[in-house]
Amino acid sequence: MSIRDSDRPRYADTLAPYACLPDASRGRLHNEPESINRSPYQRDRDRVIHSSSFRRLKHKTQVFVYHEGDHFRTRLTHSLEVAQITRSICRDMGLNEDLGEVLALAHDLGHPPFGHAGEAVLNTCMERYGGFDHNAQTIRLVTGLERRYASFDGLNLTWESLEGLAKHNGPLVEGAVDPLSLPENLPFGLRDYLKVQDLELHTFASAEAQVAAIADDIAYSSHDLDDGLRARLFEFEEIRDIPIVAQLIDEVTWTYPDADRAVMVHELVRRLINRMVTDLTVETGRRIDALSPAGVDDIRTAGTAVVAFSPDMAVAVRALKDFLHARMYRHYLVNRMTSKAKRVVRDLFQLYIAEPECLPDEWRDRAGAPESVETARVVADFIAGMTDRFAFREHAKLFDLSDVKL
To answer: Which of 251, 281, 50, 29 is nearest to 148 (CA)?
Structure first.
């Protein structure tokens, strides 16, 4: 008996009516036998965790490049933290934890090395060739570039997982579109895949996908604050300018006046996360009550996100992000590494597209003529898959002439 037959009563009885039930999944692009002991979304999660792209997140920048300290977040630890927050919220709301976890673990797979700086440079380099977008690159990875299975390329994830990865931040187009005449402003990876499978980009994603998206905000804003304090980019007194943080600092210092600085930082961050999660669940509950969705399609066609912060919390989170942008992401120490990272990505792209014979064999075989669209896409895929340290090493091999014997 399959999981789909045996688990319907259990899932239907324990999940909200608007949750994504495993037995109601729209399935996979390539048909496969059902697992006898895992739901479709559990299989999706396992495939993500065992993918090469997921392992590479260990050495991809969140804010600080990997070698700057052992305790700073990487894309991998960030993704695990997002997954934990997502599962907790989904459990509290009666949503499908497994689907939420898939989306949380996979949401950053398409990020190139060096964080948003690497993505910005790669997008500029690809401007003539359709651009670069890390969300669309995630779709490219899980639908083709990951090559682990004999029967198909990619991970062959369920429709619900692909939908959530594609549009977790909301609809990408207005109204249903013809896959043969897609809007030019859609990122290449999505335009390419929509010719194969319609992900209904004109609607919102499931509630699970919306939870994963906002859990990402919760994780990176609170944990970047943590990393900034650990790196001494700013001190406690300086972050009192952020209203929600000021309140929590007062709570922590009053409750634990003799605690050391490291414990104070941890207490502040955990309370910040709890405050945001609590606000999110209350506001989302209010929106769900107003909508009274009978099924997941009511969530998709609601016309607005159902998972959200309250207006006051949204303002508070915006203030926190503005502080981090000004005092952390633009700090001169971060700027120095960002500048170096941009040069590395730009140099690699320009060399590979002009001289594709310098690519490793398996990538060179996929490339076309120098400067062609085909070669540009192969080069972007190759660079996007690099870890920070591999990009540095590759750059040194190709551009460092110090060991040349004259």
So the answer is: 50
**Residue 66: predicted pLDDT:** 46
This prediction has a pTM of: 0.92
Phi, psi of 79 (to 5 degrees): -65, -40
Dump pLDDT digits (tens) for 109-121: 999 999 888 999 9
For residues 330 and 336, what is the distance between their CA atoms, to the nearest angstrom?
10
Given a cut of 50, the residues of the chain with pLDDT beneath it are 1-4, 6-9, 65-71, 406
